[in-house]
Design a protein that fits this description.
The protein is an alpha/beta fold. The chain has helices at 76-86, 101-113, 153-160, 181-188, 202-210, 232-238, 256-266, 317-324, 330-338, 340-345, and strands at 6-10, 19-24, 27-32, 43-45, 50-53, 55-60, 62-63, 66-67, 89-97, 124-125, 128-131, 167-172, 192-195, 215-216, 244-248, 270-273, 285-289, 292-297, 300-303, 308-311, 359-364, 367-370.
Length: 373
Amino acid sequence: MMAIQWLDRVRLLGSDRLQQVQLAEGKVAAIGLDLIPPQAVGVLDFGGDYLSLGGVDLQINGALGIPFPWLQTAEPLPKIGRYLWQQGIDAYAPTIVTAPLGEIHTALRLIHQYSPASPEPEAEILGVHLEGPFLNPRKRGAHPQQYLQSLTVEAVHQVLAEFSSAVCILTLAPELDATNQVLAYLRGLGITVSLGHSMATLEQAQAAFEAGATMITHAFNAMPPLHHREPGLLAAALTDQRVWCGVIGDGVHVHPQMLKLLGQCAADRLFLVSDALAPLGLGDGMYPWDERQIEVKNGTARLADGTLCGTTVPLLAMVGRLVDWGVCNFEAALTLATVNPRRALGLCTELLQQPVTHLLRWRSPHHYERLLS
């Protein structure tokens, strides 16, 4: 098979002109308009297809029937990592929801100690997203109330134990700590603080952002709705240029028209998350979730009482949905799944020097593939 050395007629995010891409030693070496010499061999014509980084999912609770919060062994992690890689995901933050302390510690330890041993490519684990247990009971959603904890430095220290370096994001309700001492403590540990499952007022949210919170968890969900006399957490986030907003783009958790509103308010600070549960990749049906059962129907997961608790819609499938609904154009939707999650965590977003295997070719908003797969 001919070795690919150049890509021709490539469409890149943020550029109006079709580009050429030079590959060398398995990485992107150069991007420009006149890279390919006459009579060159090893040229792959993209025909105007997009070239992008793979997706980054900062909120995913499990896959293939395996929930991250209740891991008992690291054995499932390579299977999940390979599956996500095949789905176009470069990196992810396995999410641990509210659970008994011992189960949280077991999952943290297993994820923290995991190191891929197989030569098969896997999606990279960025660190754990700890969603709880420091949540407002009034906005706990599917999180079991008996395991929620008060928000104090002592309680956070007990939950993190010796695994603080395993956590990259922690979701909390800021109104539970009027002093904001916890935020300062977490920022000192290098943990990104995201506000969610919260009843925070505008003033409480603004104080938390001043104290170092830089993100909100699944915008619109598990927080008061936008209100013209009580703006609250969401309005505080949308009007603060320092704050990133994660959102579930399945069209059920947030109506497409409200997704469009978010995009128009804060497109450069918005990113998609799947909030996928363990049945991701398994289809619809009944599945266990802690001591309870969830029903997955058309990619939406609910508890027996109807409480919305997640999706089984893959992250990159949401890109095509946003385009179909007219929420935004393809380039904007692709940015929300690939570039903006990286920017939210301060990760590299450049194509130059990226391994070729980490890149996706998009033939349409619904059809993508690993570049040289």
